[in-house]
Amino acid sequence: MQADEFERIAAAAEREGVRLEFVHGKLGVKAVPDGDHDEIVRWVMEHCMQQRSDLWLYPERGLKVETYRSGHAKPDGALAPKGSFAGHGEWATADRVVMVVEVTSYDTDTDKRDREDKPRAYAETGIPVYLLIDRDACETLVYSEPDDGAYSMIARRPFGKTIALPAPVGITLDTEPLKDWVR
Length: 183
Known about the structure:
InterPro entries: Nuclease_put_TT1808, Restrct_endonuc-II-like, Uma2
Pfam families: Uma2
Shape: globular
GO molecular function: endonuclease activity
Helix content: 25-40%
Number of strands: 13
Radius of gyration: 15 Å
Distance between the termini: 37 Å
Keywords: Endonuclease, Hydrolase, Nuclease
Largest sheet: 6 strands, mixed
Structural class: alpha+beta
Protein name: Endonuclease, Uma2 family (Restriction endonuclease fold)
Strand content: 35-45%
Mean pLDDT: 88
Order of helices and strands: HEEHEEEEEEHEEEEE
Strand order of the largest sheet: 3-6-8-9-10-11
């Protein structure tokens, strides 16, 4: 499938309330978030605003990903300088994105999508930091230092511990509140 074909299909699906992504040649349906998922994204946004007021966490921002920008992902959050997406359509390049955030959903595709496909796509794109909040494992993972299509550093902390998001993000998260938003 070509990128422009995907964009047409995704636009039609969005009108029907279905959110699609196209990563590594695979069409995927992005799960509708539950209330706890929304609270986690709000919590990350709040910390970003408090610690890095020059950046904004754009929720559900459509990004062109992968080496040749043929993939399309809608991370739960894309952290970038304010105004980075002005004048862009639904799908923008990720050139100014310093971090993407994903919160796992309770669906069957989460394992492959959030833990395998997306880290590879985001690293190929050159996004410096990928924050994965894994509600199944009750841990926070920070992928950083993209190199040759993969992140060379992964920090993993259980919920309740503090984790530092490296440069260019430079934010520290005390993950204790995440315990309240898991099943």
